[in-house]
């Protein structure tokens, strides 16, 4: 028996013993944090067991609390999780965005302080990048951090800070070199949200949900030791973290769990439910059938491309290709929901009331939410600029 086969059997046995039955079906995913909320007790059990194992971050070094798995072992783990329809144990900007940046740019002391807590979901992290006057031109940001003994005093405003009203901590871009050229006067700092001087205000979207917030800093403080990547060196950290963010958003285009292919997106089954099948057991709408088949083929090709981008990210190579994934994934996810609504007909316009099921109302609201996919994490226009300059090498 090969080592990898032995690992598969050990993994399968462990998962079978430790994954609660409640977590083997679709449902909510916990976000962790100081005041973590769990919709079912098994969510907490699943998070604790996977966090202790380091398998919330399977490929992170074990010395920082990660699983220490090779990419081949991680592939086996993901296959076994998928085979039992296991839910993610933790949703976390710390895992998807901050942690990879810390692994590359933080000091050893910072890694030992922050990475293990991210693995176990002890804090809910949010991102402080965009400002009211600094969106696509992010480097023009004006939130200031001024050194005061062993702390920085922060003043300014961020916007589109997802879940800031629930987060414990924020990774933030601040201006520390007001006299420097705009890209050279920015630092990357970690700030505790639970302190005087930090306030948040939710922003309601057309979907009726409110993941986004405005965040205000009024003489808020951050320890000087939580400046990551060096003074006025934050733009380099910011760019790499954005690559991780764009890779994360790209996965929206792959369906609910990011698999290659579209079998988990619900599109095919949803269409069968509302359209029905013809005498040859084919979807009884030739035009829609063709659109869904094309979408499925594109999903598979996109999934393979995303796997390549993921492998590049793991070895730390610069990957402007994440912008390709972000651009295509955003549009692909929007198209999937357009096809869902086309399949559902009038049932796809539900907002509230007994005439629509909970699922129908949720799909309508999720369709509206997808409109933000091509704005958040850098607009589609920003991604096209990155692709033209850094992938295709076109002149300014």
Q: How would you describe this protein?
A:
With 396 residues, this protein is of the alpha+beta class. The termini are far apart.
Which structural traits does this protein have?
396 residues; alpha+beta; four-stranded mixed beta sheet; 11 helices; 8 strands; globular
Structural class: alpha+beta
Tally of DSSP β-strands: 8
* Proportion of beta-strand residues: 5-15%
Shape: globular
What is the count of helical runs?
11
* Strand arrangement, major sheet: 1-4-5-8
Give the low-pLDDT segments.
256-264
Q: Classify the helix fraction into a percent range.
A: 40-55%
The biggest beta sheet reads: 4 strands, mixed
Mean pLDDT across all amino acids: 89
The string of secondary-structure elements, in order, is HHHHHEEEEEEEEHHHHHH
Distance between the termini: 56 Å
Rg, please?
22 Å
In short:
Helix content is 43%, strand content 13%. By secondary structure, the protein is of the alpha+beta class.
């Amino acid at each position: 028996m090969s080592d990898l086969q032995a690992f598969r059997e050990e993994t399968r046995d462990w998962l079978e013993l430790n994954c609660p039955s409640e977590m083997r079906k679709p449902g909510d995913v916990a976000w962790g944090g100081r005041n973590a909320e769990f919709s079912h007790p098994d969510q907490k059990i699943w998070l604790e067991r996977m966090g202790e194992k380091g398998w919330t971050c399977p490929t992170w070094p074990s010395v920082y609390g990660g699983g220490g798995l090779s990419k081949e072992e991680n592939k086996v783990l993901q296959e076994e999780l998928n085979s039992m329809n296991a839910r993610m144990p933790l949703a976390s900007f710390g895992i998807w965005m901050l942690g990879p940046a810390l692994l590359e740019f933080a000091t050893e002391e910072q890694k030992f302080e922050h990475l293990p807590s991210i693995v176990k979901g002890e804090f809910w992290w949010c991102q402080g990048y965009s400002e009211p006057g600094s969106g696509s031109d992010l480097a023009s940001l004006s939130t200031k951090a001024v050194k005061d003994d062993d702390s920085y005093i922060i003043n300014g405003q961020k916007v589109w800070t997802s879940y800031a009203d629930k987060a414990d901590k924020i990774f933030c871009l601040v201006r520390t070199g007001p006299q420097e050229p705009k890209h050279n006067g920015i630092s990357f700092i970690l700030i505790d949200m639970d302190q005087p001087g930090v306030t948040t205000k939710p922003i309601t979207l057309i979907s009726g949900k409110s993941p986004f917030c405005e965040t205000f800093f009024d003489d808020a403080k951050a320890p000087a030791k939580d400046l990551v990547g060096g003074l006025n060196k934050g733009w380099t950290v910011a760019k790499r973290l954005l690559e991780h963010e764009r890779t994360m958003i790209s996965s929206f285009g792959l369906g609910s769990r990011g698999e290659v292919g579209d079998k988990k997106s619900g599109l095919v089954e949803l269409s069968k439910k509302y359209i029905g099948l013809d005498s040859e057991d084919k979807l009884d709408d030739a035009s829609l059938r063709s659109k869904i088949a094309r979408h499925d083929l594109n999903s598979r090709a996109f999934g393979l491309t995303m796997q390549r981008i993921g492998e590049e990210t793991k070895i730390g190579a610069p990957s402007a290709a994440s912008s390709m994934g972000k651009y295509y994934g955003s549009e692909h996810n929007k198209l999937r929901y357009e096809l869902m609504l086309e399949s559902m007909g009038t049932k796809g316009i539900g907002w509230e009331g007994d005439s629509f099921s909970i699922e129908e109302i949720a799909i309508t609201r999720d369709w509206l939410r997808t409109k933000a996919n091509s704005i958040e994490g850098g607009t589609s226009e920003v991604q096209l600029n990155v692709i033209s300059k850094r992938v295709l090498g076109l002149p300014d």
